[in-house]
Fold this protein.
Amino acid sequence: MQDSMEVVGNTPVETPKFIKTFGKWAVAVGMAIWAFGESAGRARAAAELSRQGYHTEARRLMLGDNA
């Protein structure tokens, strides 16, 4: 019978700075792509609303008025 057990795999490992930097960069690029897609979608929706004659709604959509 063994009196003590050895803990394996409990050693702290530091993440390399390159990986942290790359992760932050990847998140920033993803957010930029998301923002561009949302802006393009709003513009298309506003153009369609304007084409159908809903000029006030199109203006509110592009200006971000929620009232």
